[in-house]
Structure formats: structure tokens, C-alpha cells
Amino acid sequence: MSGSRSQHVRRARAAAAVLALLAAGCSTGEDLPASPVTSSTRPPDTATPTSAPPAPRPSSVTIALAGDIHFEGALADRLRDPATALAPAAVALEAADVAIVNLETSVGSGGRPEPGKRFTFSAGPAAFAALAAAGIDVASMANNHALDHGRARLPSTLRAARSAAEADPPLAVIGLGRDLDEAFRPAVTDVDGTLVATVAATVADRDPTADRTGQWAATADLGGTADALDPAHLLAAVQDADRAADVVVAYLHWGVQGERCPSTDQRSLAGRLVAAGADVVVGTHAHELQGDGRLGRGYVAYGLGNFAWYSPGPTGVLTLTVEPPRVPTGRARVVRSAWWPAAIGADGLATRVRGEAAARFAADREALRACAGLTR
């Protein structure tokens, strides 16, 4: 990750705090800044003729999106060296202004594996360092494995997430928190003055081996994940983010495991999110790549599949080039989409495919776009 991208995320903490207040619908009683992010500027009466003019905002920003990551099986030992844990896929993530993934594991210490649950995933805080070292800016933990070791581990997870946000390079962890508002708090990345807000939520209501509908959902007075089985809070969070940021990304854990075409519920919620102000809607949970393309004024990628996983298979990084709105009441617009086509090997890592394999990947993307009801 470049130094400038690290600075973007550090500067964005103030924006995240402001958006949290907006989402909570409350006031601290203190004067808030007029804009989500403040910067150090010289008052007009002390400006000098040699003062540098403010840097122009970028005409577009790039957002790299990848799917499920954990550190199980062959991947577990890679956390001994977080700096190289996700190589060689880092090249596709580092190149973007903002890179976002789903971290599908509990993180920290304490608690115990959930009884009766077939798959329980666990990693130490080095998992956060590994994501940041790979060029990832934002990690969603709004999923059905974030609390595989129960709520007893959550304080440890949140401490590690705070440390990750203060590290260099930093990582913003979203989708879970000490209460409902913190769980839905967006990460906001400042790309030279363009604010990209990422909101995360899970609607993965049923574990493959046990019915745990909403079991770990955060509430007004209980920590947990950002649960959107009732999407009202999610839609409100997206609306608030849209008012305060230039580009809004909604990252969902949704769909039916093993399915390559999105469910009716996915398609319905995607439309509602775009209408609420999401410019980009992406998701995971099916453990399969699903279709991506345009839906009205937004861009949707229903399933990003696995990315660093113990099961081999196709994967990739989707990079979107987004133009911020030209006027305050306008909408951001995805002007280009490009896949870094890859496959997960026996080592659990994504490696780029070329030649005939890349051609097959592209043909598969076209077929999946069609069954998703999306357009180019």
C-alpha cells in the first residue's frame, strides 16, 4: 500500500465518526465540522502569496473488490509472516485507491467454538495485519463466521480492530461493533478529497449446519454483527452515507451457498440499496462467483466468491473506476469495470490466470451477468 493511501485512511477517521453520528440520529452538543473531513488550512487573512492552491479532486477513483478470506488449512501458517501472507494477489489490490474484502473468521482470543456448528474459523490479530499488508483498506466482518467463538471473544476482536485502524498501513474493520450503531458505522476513505463510504451488513440468516437466525445480531445495547434480515437499518445507513460521502459501497453477506445465480431476495435488496443511494453493491456468502453489471444507476456484483480459502476454484479481483458526482445532488457513476482473473490453488492463494483460462473466465462472467439480470 502506498504512503498516500495510508494517509487517506488516517484522514478518514473523522469522517467515520461524523457518519456514525448521522446514522445514530444524535448530536454530541459540540460543533461539528461543516464537511465530513477537515484539513489544516491557513486562515485567509494570514495566507501568503506563495501558499499552494488546494490539490484538485481526482476525476475518478478506483475501487478493488474481492471476496471471502480466512486463514484456515494451508493458509494458517501464512500468518507467521503477515507481510507476505496474501501474495501474489496483493498486486491487484494495491493498485486501487480503495480495496475492500470480506474477512470470514473470528479474530482474537477467548471464547470457545460454537457448539453444534460444523465449521468454526479462528485467527489471531495478525489476520488484520496481513490484510493491510496486501493493500486492503476495508474489511467487512458482517458475516456468519465473525462470532464463531461467541460473544465472549468480541471485546478481543474490537480491541484488535482498533489497533489495526491505528497501524501503518491502517485497516478499517466494519460490520460488527459494541452496539447496533457501531456495527453499521461506515468506513470512509478520503481519496484526495473524494469520500468513499463502505457500509457492511449480513443477511446470511442460516448456517449450513445449524439454524441461527439473527443469533449474533448487534442491538441497541448488545455487541454483534450488522444484521440486515430486516433491512431498515441498513437502508438508513446507506441513505446517511449518501448524504455525507461522494461514493457509497454496500458490501453484503447474502445469497444461497453453492448457487451461481442470485436469489430473488438478493435481487430485490440490491434494487432497494441502489434506490437508497448505494453506487456499488457487492456481496459474498455463496462461495461462488455470481454475475456483475449495471442495475439502474448502480453497479452490482452479487457474488465475489472465495479469495483466500482452503478450497481451490475460480476467483478474481473486480476493479471499478468510479466518477464522483459533478454536482452536490448528483450520483457517482461507474465508468469502467475490469476483472483480475484468478484461481485459488492448493495453497489457498489466488494466482492470476492467463491465456485460455482467462478467456474461459471472461466467457463465464458474461453468462453469469445474464442470469443475474444485469447489463454492461
Give a description of the structure.
This protein is α/β, with parallel strands linked by helices and 376 residues long. It has a domain at 66-176 and 227-236 and 258-372. Helix content is 25%, strand content 24%. It contains 9 helices and 18 strands. The protein has helices at 3-11, 13-24, 90-94, 126-133, 154-166, 180-183, 232-244, 264-276, 355-372, and strands spanning 61-69, 98-103, 106-107, 122-123, 138-140, 172-174, 176-177, 187-191, 194-202, 224-225, 247-253, 280-284, 292-295, 298-301, 306-308, 313-323, 333-344, 350-352. Strands 1, 2, 5, 6, 15, 16, 17 and 18 form an 8-stranded mixed beta sheet that branches. Strand 5 (138-140), helix 5 (154-166) and strand 6 form a beta-alpha-beta unit. Helix 2 packs across helix 7. The radius of gyration is 20 Å and the shape is globular. The two termini are 30 Å apart. The model is unreliable at 1-50 and 208-212 (pLDDT under 50). InterPro entries: Capsule_synth_CapA (IPR019079), CW_Biosynth-Accessory (IPR052169), Metallo-depent_PP-like (IPR029052). Residues 38-50 have a biased composition (Low complexity). Residues 30-58 are annotated as: Disordered. Residues 1-29 form the signal peptide. Keywords: Signal.
